[in-house]
Structure to design on (248 residues):
């Protein structure tokens, strides 16, 4: 395992002397999984901005400064054991990207996602109460493709700027498309969280309060989601997402 190191703008420039290798299909797909997870993370933050949450100042979500601000929010709902394991897998994914032959035309997005992974690794490792964990490249493939729905994306929206959020989404999407199949699930990370809690029987009022939205804003968002899914109410939506395995 490579030890995480602080990521800065200089991390966006790849060393010309670094030996690059062609990754096998399994490792390339693993990078695609990580990129897809980052894309969905960014989309959930962007949704918070759409619902009127006042954005923050961070315009570069790949940097250590942003991840140091975000890590306490991660730790509000996710145990350190989970975060430390995630950091180890992020670190291995960054190590793979560092030596891989970059797909044509995506040098900057590739470097930005690599920097995001390094920054997240460093910020979590610095803040974690226990020692760093280790992971192998094969462990990356076992990573869940989505952030746990308990994540407080509304809080993250308050520290992230829409410009940086959009850039992260676009970079992650380009890496994801270059490395593997794109998940066609129509739900964002935030919408998956809502659906899981709706299926569990939580009230809309409680979901809105937990995520930092007004009840009216969440009702409007859910109405728009029902229209997009082609259903009339929460019961039909719950049946649709369950039948399609969109919450798996």
């Amino acid at each position: 395992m490579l030890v995480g190191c602080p990521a800065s703008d200089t991390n966006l420039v790849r060393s010309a002397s670094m030996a690059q290798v062609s990754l096998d299909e399994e490792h390339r797909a693993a990078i695609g999984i990580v990129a897809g997870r980052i894309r969905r993370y960014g989309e959930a933050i962007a949704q918070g901005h759409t619902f009127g949450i006042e954005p923050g100042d961070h315009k570069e979500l790949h940097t250590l400064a942003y991840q140091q601000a975000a890590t306490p929010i991660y730790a509000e709902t996710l145990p350190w054991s989970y975060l430390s394991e995630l950091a180890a897998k992020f670190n291995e994914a960054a190590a793979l990207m560092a030596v891989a032959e970059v797909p044509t035309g995506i040098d900057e997005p590739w470097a930005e996602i690599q920097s995001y992974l390094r920054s997240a690794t460093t910020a979590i490792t610095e803040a974690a109460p226990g020692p760093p964990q280790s992971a192998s490249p094969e462990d990356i493939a076992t990573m869940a493709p989505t952030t746990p729905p308990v994540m407080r994306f509304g809080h993250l929206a308050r520290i992230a700027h829409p410009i940086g959020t959009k850039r992260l989404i676009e970079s992650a999407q380009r890496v994801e498309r270059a490395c593997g199949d794109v998940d066609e699930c129509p739900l964002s990370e935030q919408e998956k969280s809502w659906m899981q809690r709706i299926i569990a029987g939580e009230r809309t009022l409680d979901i809105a309060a937990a995520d930092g939205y007004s009840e009216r804003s969440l009702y409007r968002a859910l109405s728009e989601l029902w229209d997009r899914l082609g259903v009339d109410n929460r019961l039909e939506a719950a049946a649709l997402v369950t039948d399609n395995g969109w919450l798996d």
